[in-house]
What does this fold into?
Amino acid sequence: MSKIRGAFIVLITPMTEAQEIDWSGLKNNVNYFINQGVAGIVINGSTGEFVSLSKEERFQMVEVVMKEVNGRIPVIVGTAAETTKEAIEYTKQAKANGADCALVINPYYSKPKDNEVYFHFKQISDAVDIPIMLYNNPFTSGVNMSTELMLEIGRDCKNVKFIKESSGEIGKARDLARNAKGAFEVFCGSEELVMESYFVGATGWICVAGNVVPKLVTDMFNYFQNGEIEKAWAINDQILPLCKFLEGSGKYVQAIKRSMDLLGQAGGPARHPRLGLTPEEDKILKDILSNLNLPIHV
It folds into this structure.
């Protein structure tokens, strides 16, 4: 059984008021999530503001986190880049530092055609011997991969072992899972469709909300796996307002960073031009956290 299963928390990149990475806070956050019993973590993802980090910062993020984790839980490293050459470089660096999997979205500015998307993933898969999670997110990359294209990549690229499906089209998750035939596994990437994704065959969730409720998202997956469906649904209902806010606000990075601060963990500001929550958004978030019975540090 793959160790890449369950709810993997997509870590933020905590920062100081000067917008420099808070490395001490990052290490504290890593240990906090490990102590909460999470299945694994993801770094240098969208929630980690990877497009706002320099190459040196992304490399250092991998080095620092892998050293801090020290094999205690699996780590997925985002290795996306606009060019194939650079994506291979990031993926090789993740592999060299002991990452368990690389998360790769298609180039996000050039809006590549199907044959270019295929080429991109085939080149990375052939160049680096590490499990790869293909990431389909049309909202951030401008490309909504077809089910057929993802199946082709998953079957032809020997290292593409997972597909994170974030289009919000539950039929894609279903068709990918049912037609994978052992070539790859499907992960949920839509905060509002987690239980639905589990029911159609997803074996995990790349999870933003888990920054706020790591134990709940972990328990939810475990309950589902154990056949305790009503308990899993109860947690889903409990965290759904948070998931909807994260998806709908357009400020999931800022909302998670603010949540981490409110919960006594390391958050800080996002890198500009991202600005913080408005007073109205902040009140909504605090109400959501209060309804989850979380201890807020004001």
Summary: DSSP finds twelve helices and eight strands in the chain. Residues 4 and 27 are 22 Å apart (CA to CA). The chain has a mean pLDDT of 96.
